[in-house]
Design goal:
Blueprint: E1 2-6, E2 10-14, E3 33-37, E4 41-46, E5 50-53, E6 56-59, E7 74-78, E8 81-85, E9 90-93, E10 98-101, E11 118-121, E12 126-129, H1 136-141
Length: 157
């Protein structure tokens, strides 16, 4: 049996018709490799996510090759693979194929309908602020949880 290296992927072993060839069922490959059976050959190849280096299969760092394919993504190399995710206060937006920021004010965390406070998205969260033309002491007097049932809250007309 004669074996030769297949660039970057593994070894190709073949034998002539008079020799008994090892079959993949005989586990002829090192544990690093996957065996691919041919009629008079077998190949010991590196599994997906690995490449041949000094006769061994080593993990490929796919993150070096912009594999995520969407804007703003963070890539994490894993053994034999990789994982793409959106960082922090972002989510994957299928329609724009990018990581988009959540609008923290969309859910009205300042309860603007009960208070005079307005929400300002600050990237990593939100801030509840009084409008410029509203006296701070009145705005601060009534927090969203201060309004009792049937009570007129600051900011309501």
């Amino acid at each position: 049996m004669e074996c030769s290296a297949v660039e970057r992927f593994g070894f190709n072993c073949s034998c002539n018709g008079s020799e008994e060839c090892k079959r993949c069922s005989d586990n002829p490959c090192d544990p690093d490799f996957v065996c691919v059976q041919g009629e008079f050959t077998h190949q010991c190849v590196c599994d997906e996510g690995y490449r041949l280096k000094h006769g061994r299969c080593v993990d490929v760092d796919e993150c070096l090759y912009d594999v995520c394919g969407f804007s703003g993504a963070e890539c994490s190399n894993t053994e034999g693979s990789y994982q793409c995710s959106c960082p922090g206060n972002t989510y994957y937006n299928d329609s724009s194929n990018s990581c988009d920021r959540y609008n923290m004010c969309e859910a009205d965390p300042c309860e603007s309908s009960k208070t005079a406070m307005m929400c300002r998205d600050i990237g990593i969260g939100f801030a509840c602020e009084c409008p410029e033309d509203y006296p701070d002491e009145q705005c601060a007097e009534k927090q969203p949880c201060d309004c009792e049932e049937n009570e007129e809250c600051v900011g309501n007309d």
